[in-house]
Amino acid sequence: MDNHNLSIQLYKTREEFAAAQEAEMALIEGLGNNILKHLGNIELGIPIKIFMRSSASQVVAGLTATVFGGWMYISLLWVEESLRNQGYGTRLVQMAEAEAISLGCQHAHVDTYSFEAKPFYDRLGYETFATLDDYPKSYCKYFMKKQLVS
Q1: Contacts with 35 (C-beta within 8 Å, 6 or more apart), sequence order
Q2: Measured between alpha carbons, how far is 53 from 44 in angstroms, rounded to an integer?
Q3: Most distant pair of Cα atoms in the chain: their distance
Q4: What fold does the segment set 43-147 form as a domain?
Q5: Which of 92, 142, 81, 148 is nearest to 117 (CA)?
Q6: Is residue 47 within 8 Å of 74, Cβ to Cβ?
Q7: pLDDT on residue 39
């Protein structure tokens, strides 16, 4: 690397993370260009964002996902504890799945931990295709998928 006069920086603090956003965008753009080089002119990562708000406009539940390559990836799903087990999470996932299907998706995937929502996703028809044991220590991370259309 010395031949190219390059430097490497490790970011550790909250302030440094904020300053790193421009650098992170360079990574995303570089990876996106590589994908386009191999797959042609395709849409890269269409976002799906669904939020549930209280009467005071406070976010009490929500889901974020990304559509790419015929798959929807659920990256975040959260329901405030007092509202759990009342069907709100199911409704959010079903809304996201319907939107993904309208965008041409045939599959969905998600990852969750053993202390979180695996039984929830099981009930919604997701199946585990991989498990990462001891992540974090004493727990598992599950990778799950579902066929949205047959």
Answers
A1: 42, 44
A2: 29
A3: 61
A4: Aminopeptidase (3.40.630)
A5: 142
A6: no
A7: 85
DSSP string, 8-70: -----SHHHHHHTHHHHHHHHHHHHHHHHHHH-S----EEEEEEEE-TT--EEEEEEEEEETT
Kindly report the length of the chain: 150
Q: 5 in the Ramachandran plot: left (φ > 0), alpha (ψ -120 to 50) or beta?
A: left
Least confident stretch, 24-28, 91-95, 96-100, 104-108: 24-28
Average pLDDT over residues 25-43: 86
Q: Are the CB atoms for 94 and 101 separated by under 8 Å?
A: no
105 with 140: CB under 8 angstroms?
A: no
| Domain coordinates in residue numbering, the chain | 43-147
Exposed e or buried b for every residue in 75-88, given b needs 16+ CB within 10 A?
eebbbeeeeeeeeb
What tokens appear for 63 in the block?
């889901």
Residue with tokens 């028809």: 125
Structure pTM? 0.84
Among 98, 132, 101, which residue's Cα sits nearest to residue 118? Answer: 132
